[in-house]
Amino acid sequence: MQRGWFITFEGGEGTGKTTQILKLAAHLESLGRTVVLTREPGGTPVAEAARAVLLDPALEPMGLSELFLLEAARHDHVEQVIRPGLAKGEVILCDRYADSSTVYQGMVRGIGVERVEELNELATGGLDPDLTIVFDLDPEAGVGRARSRNAEGDGSESRLDDEPAEFHRSVRDGFLRLAVRYPHRVRVIDATGGPDTVFDRLLAVLPEELR
Ligand code: TYD
Question: Which of 90, 94, 124 has the alpha carbon at shortest distance from 5?
Fold first, then answer.
């Protein structure tokens, strides 16, 4: 059996993350790999229910409540989807994971990196990604992309897109700091340019057997 791979994708809003994940899934399937596409918060019925609460603009959970909801969703997701998939040799492509909590809740919302990482550890049982791709883009460009996407959709997932520019700058800085802290697994990709250009950069940082 082939070994499983756990790859996570991070970055601010509108960095083109979703497009790249779909392109990578198609590429890996063409190599004969079984790919699981998933996301956080989400990925199981309980976690998707938590997601609906988290992204509801009418609800404003307190900071720690938000974090606990994210970690509850994460634990469910790790135990029911990610670990079983890896055990079967699947490639798990996950749109956001624990690093998002470290950056959004730990750094930007001010709960603290150590506290959040402790909860991440508890929720994941210490399961770190094999590789984390951070899509890096100037927040001005990213928020513009996210806004036009929300204007096309039903606008139901827009709570965090409405944050001020300062928030988006802190998110970007946060992910860049994590890349410095965890150089063995985090790769920063320049997200400027068209989808094919960005995809070439993504392929270049993948392990040999997934290229
Ligand atoms: P989503 O619509 O998936 O945004 P994006 O397309 O930017 O990934 O919404 C997820 C939002 O939740 C996003 O704004 C980041 C936020 N989030 C956290 O604040 N902490 C977390 O741990 C996770 C997983 C997401």
Answer: 90
Please report which confidence band the pLDDT of residue 153 belongs to, taking 50, 70 and 90 as the band edges.
Answer: low
Residue 157 Cα: closest atom of ligand 1:
2
Count of domains in the chain?
A: 1
Q: Return the residue matching tokens 């994708």.
A: 9
Neighbour-count burial of 127, counting CB atoms closer than 10 A to its CB (0-12 exposed, 13-18 middle, 19+ buried): middle
Q: Nearest-CA neighbor of 56 among 43, 69, 74, 44?
A: 69
pLDDT in tens, 105-140: 999 999 999 999 999 999 999 999 999 999 999 988
Residues 6+ apart with CB under 8 A from 209: 2
Bridge partners, 134 (sequence order): 10, 188
The secondary structure of residue 125, as a DSSP letter, is: T
Contact 133, 205 (CB under 8 A): yes
Q: Does pTM surpass 0.70?
A: yes
User: What's the distance, Cα to Cα, between the start and end of the chain in Å?
Assistant: 18
**51 Cβ closer than 6 Å to some ligand 1 atom:** no
In which domain, by residue range, is 36 found? 5-210
Residue 210 gets which letter from DSSP?
G
Distance of alpha carbon 10 from alpha carbon 190, whole angstroms: 12
Does residue 41 have a cis bond before it (omega within 30 degrees)? yes
The residue whose C-alpha atom lies closest to atom 13 belonging to ligand 1 is: 160
CATH number (domain holding residue 152): 3.40.50.300
